[in-house]
Amino acid sequence: MDLLLFGPPGAGKGTQADAVRGATGVIHVSTGDIFRKHLKGGTPLGLLAKGYMDQGQLVPDDVVVDIVATRLAEPDAAAGALFDGFPRTVRQAELLQAWLLAHGRRIDLALNLVVDDAVVIARLSGRRTCLACGATYHIAHNPPAADKVCDKCGGEVVQRKDDAEDVVRARIETYHRDTAPVLGWLRANVRVVDIDADRPIAEVESALHAALRG
Ligand code: AP5
Fold this sequence. Notes:
Blueprint: E1 2-6, H1 13-24, E2 27-30, H2 31-41, H3 44-53, H4 61-72, E3 81-84, H5 90-102, E4 109-114, H6 117-126, E5 127-130, E6 136-138, E7 157-158, H7 165-189, E8 192-196, H8 201-213
Parallel strand pairs: 1-3, 1-4, 2-3, 4-8
Antiparallel strand pairs: 5-6, 5-7
The structure holds BIS(adenosine)-5'-pentaphosphate.
BIS(adenosine)-5'-pentaphosphate binds near residues 59 and 127.
């Protein structure tokens, strides 16, 4: 099964990914996480991606599609994947669907997390992320038990550089210009379930489970 977690920055894709992955048993492919891992490792790909991420712009399609294709070629991806933060342009969507169809697969379901821009800004300005394992928190809605210490691994919890207010505004603009049109493509080609994601985390998770059953 191949699924998308779709939505604007801060919609809760990363927060909900574990629950969806757990319910489906497929691997989690987050392009943002892949870039951050490369950035941490100081690889050429990480340095290339940093230039775009720090400005709230998209990494070029060919680079993104290449890293996704590489991940999909690994044996654990054969049963399907949960894509998070990908596709982000219509071209990425078309290339993903073409790759899947060529391998006897297709995008089976897109889970569209719906939140408005004001919610996105409030969430991202309060988001904190573990430097070691990438777990996400929110200073008001979902804080770590001990200040700046990750509940999961004990790592240091900090603010992501691209969660600074000016970069968040650029990311929202990028979303409306380049990524929102993907939704039209998805509605024409794939089963899409809209999820009201402006609700407590547990309620969003229940709605996602219901969509997976339906
Ligand atoms: P990426 O890492 O994908 O960032 P994003 O899509 O902007 O998504 P976020 O991680 O910011 O948000 P999220 O929806 O996962 O929200 P979260 O669960 O953390 O991409 C980063 C950059 O990499 C891009 O800007 C681009 O440069 C590049 N890139 C990545 N993929 C690319 C691609 N395909 N093409 C080109 N470039 C690409 O939640 C946010 C906060 O809200 C957290 O604090 C959380 O605790 C809180 N929260 C979550 N749900 C709720 C709730 N229901 N109620 C209250 N608080 C909540």
